[in-house]
Amino acid sequence: MEKLWGGILEVLRELLPEASFRVWIKPLKYMGLKENRILIACPNQFSLEWIKENYLPLFREAIKKQKLSLDVEFLVEEETINNAIVQGELPYDPTRLLGRKLSGRFTFEEFVVGECNRLAYATCWALANKNPKSPIIYLCAGTGLGKSHLSQAVGNYILKNPGKGKICYLTAQDFTAHLVRALKQDRFDEFKEKLRKGLEILMLEEVHHFAGKDFTQQELALTLDYLYDAGKIVVFTANRPPQEIERLDDSLRSRFQAGAIVRINPPDYQTRINIIRRKAEKQGIKLKEEVIDYLAQNLRGDIRQIESAIVGLVARSSLLQEPITLSLAQELIQEITPQVPSLTKDFIIDLVCRYFKVSKEDLTSKKRQRKISFSRQVAMYLCRRFTDESLQAIGKLFNKDHATVVYAIKNINKKLSLPGPTKYQIEYLCREIEEYLQPTKPINKKEIKADTGQAVSGSTRRLKSL
Ligand SMILES: Nc1ncnc2c1ncn2[C@@H]1O[C@H](COP(=O)(O)OP(=O)(O)OP(=O)(O)O)[C@@H](O)[C@H]1O
């Protein structure tokens, strides 16, 4: 049957332009025959839809040319992994996995490491290799920054290595739904037993969704006690640190805080460059340096956006039968990031002044009072982290030299490495800026100030109530 696939590929190669064949057809995998259908695995949902929409008739023609009356069925590669589980072809024992299926894509090898995520990566790697400083980790980051990727990488790694312990992967919503179902069906003890007995690792995603669910929180706290006492690995993910989750019982909060709380920051320029290169390679294309640089300059937050930009570029280039040029990339970026505000140092200075209640004049003055000099250091740190300004240019903004900026950044990094109110304050400001960097939503009527009719941004509103 490999011959059949070879024959189909040959026909498709003749029918399609070389670039389209390389981008869309080459990554497909022949999975065998099922009844009267040829099963073909696509690397992702986007590729599946694209192929069905654009190339299905060509596939049928290519099959006909093999003198066979067969149809074709496309699957996403992850679905085929599931089929493989049934046929016992997986390199691990599927009975070890409870809860959600892990994505085969989310591995340590696929994760690009940079300054923004090095600590999270190293902590998860140590956890997977059973050599952790603490068996509990709380990964905390904004959307699309790699929390699920890293937590599932731990699970995938443990699953692929010999062992008997079970791996349970759930979101907070799954946990709540299972608990409610168990209670309704009078199978509460069974539920508890399943989560405790024989479990090697619990991966619990989006724990901020436990907010306000009192009974679920109590039950989870008891399960965690059991797992902590038994020295099991527990990986939590959330969009904010435990101390900022509202309506969370103190007992659960303290259990979340029991391990290493590690933040994943938005990718810096160099990491973005590396991610773009890696994702393009995965799509089988080599981007020009100027295109990579342009994408890295313009896609700063969510890594999902980087992924979708690359898939979009490949699709456009294939559809228009044009190479991927800078102007094609510019067109695409204009479309996918139409309303991203341009972050200026003014926004950062304004934010810091409002938050610490200092004036702009103070921030740029030579005054050395503790409150002012600390606010100035924070502003310098944020400018360095969220803008592309040089150290010298940042120094100039505050009437200081570049050595003072270096000192400020070092000092703030030191504070960020220690738990405590200062760390939380800085992290809060970082989140405000990340939120500001997200594409703006259409203005909601409620956000218009009644007295002036002026629009008030989310950030401004929150700062006013601080
Ligand atoms: N450092 C990285 N290297 C390679 N790919 C990455 C990296 N970080 C994130 N990604 C990719 O970005 C996408 C989003 O990542 P992920 O699902 O882990 O985000 P998340 O933080 O869990 O977001 P959310 O809170 O929205 O669920 C995934 O396809 C993932 O593979």
From TrEMBL:
This is Chromosomal replication initiator protein DnaA. Pfam families: Bac_DnaA (PF00308), Bac_DnaA_C (PF08299), DnaA_N (PF11638). Domain I is involved in oligomerization and binding regulators, domain II is flexibile and of varying length in different bacteria, domain III forms the AAA+ region, while domain IV binds dsDNA. It is found in: Cytoplasm. Residues 344-412 form the Chromosomal replication initiator DnaA C-terminal domain. ATP binds at residues 144, 146-148. Oligomerizes as a right-handed, spiral filament on DNA at oriC. Residues 318-466 are annotated as: Domain IV, binds dsDNA. Belongs to the DnaA family. It comes from the Bacteria. One of its GO terms (molecular function) is lipid binding. GO terms for biological process: DNA replication initiation; regulation of DNA replication. Residues 101-317 are annotated as: Domain III, AAA+ region. Plays an essential role in the initiation and regulation of chromosomal replication. ATP-DnaA binds to the origin of replication (oriC) to initiate formation of the DNA replication initiation complex once per cell cycle. Binds the DnaA box (a 9 base pair repeat at the origin) and separates the double-stranded (ds)DNA. Forms a right-handed helical filament on oriC DNA; dsDNA binds to the exterior of the filament while single-stranded (ss)DNA is stabiized in the filament's interior. Residues 1-80 are annotated as: Domain I, interacts with DnaA modulators. InterPro entries: AAA+_ATPase, Chromosome_initiator_DnaA, Chromosome_initiator_DnaA-like, Chromosome_initiator_DnaA_CS, DnaA_C, DnaA_dom, DnaA_N_dom, DnaA_N_sf. Residues 133-265 form the AAA+ ATPase domain. The gene is dnaA. Its main location: cytoplasm.
